[in-house]
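Gfo/Idh/MocA family oxidoreductase, pasting as requested.
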Amino acid sequence: MSSHRSTTPLRTAVVGTGGIARSSHLPALRTLADAGEVELVAAVDVDMDAVRAFAAGAGIPHASTDLDATLAELRPDLVVLCTPPAVHRDQAVTALKAGAWVWCEKPPCPSLADFDAIETAERPGDAGPYASIVFQHRFGSGARHVRRLLRDGAFGRPLVAHCQTTWYRDTAYYSVPWRGRWATEGGGPAMGHGIHQTDLLLDLMGPWSEVRGMAARLVHDVETEDVSTAQVRFGSGAVATVVNSVLSPDEVSRIRIDCELATIELTHLYGYRNADWRITPAPGVPEETVAAWRDFGTDEPSSHLAQLRALVADIRAGRRHATSGAGGRQTLEFITALYKSAFTDTPVRAGEIGPGDPYYTELHGGAQGWAPDTARKEEAHA
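Structure tokens follow.
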């Protein structure tokens, strides 16, 4: 790790200047810029008017529609991808080959094949540069506290879990042309909406071993599903249910883990604070133990800022970030397995999907009624 990156701000370029860049990434980057951790040096977008307006508003000196030229001219240390998933592979590989770390919005990319291509472009070892995925729910103080207690065995064995992302999206939401399509949105609610809760569940529960999924297209005129469910078995033997929906007027995001000595619950919508967690002890657990469990410490909400702080610290220390490499791939592999199980009506085991499997290169796997060339035809004949 170069001393330059240990002592000076990470020169950062933002690629894609749409809603997520403005609402989530830019405020986080500005906070760390004020702390001297990063320096915003460039913004890139396919729309020159949009990128100029974004750069001017954020005080970013360089605005461009050419990522390659920006990388060659400015040599940023960190590239933040706020673009649609269909272009993540090419942009991430380009940035990695230019010697920059990558922080990539979810969904990470449309397939495991794309993810593996990105990982292949990384430099060997944990020091990087490497690509990381935006999975900010892992980085709030609540998740850190509960994860540590679970890892230490404080609650006993995890036994049964539930993971719920039940949101509501109306017809107007899906009137935007790129939504609801495999090629441009990357998937339905299992991929584009529930991915954060799924990622947090996997982070807390440990490696999954088997998934049995179901998916349906019940309301919206889309290629992807609008609801999915899954039964999951973990390597520890614990079992879980996962539900992802965009059909649910009473919106909630929830994780519940029943362990031998306690039930842990998290209930929120798009982000949590310490107060959104609840720990209920089993009968007989000493009060002082319960009090320690419920002491979450200083409240750091789950947010892009919380993850960006951790990412910058990892880059400076020459550590692999938790959502890079295998730590990011596990969630995409799980979602791929959910789709394969749902569309083939068979259980799928961890590690099963690799080169040569149709689901390795496309999440719909070419399945009749789900692949783009068959989904709408099937509806037309219904």
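Note for the archive: The two ends are 59 Å apart (CA to CA).
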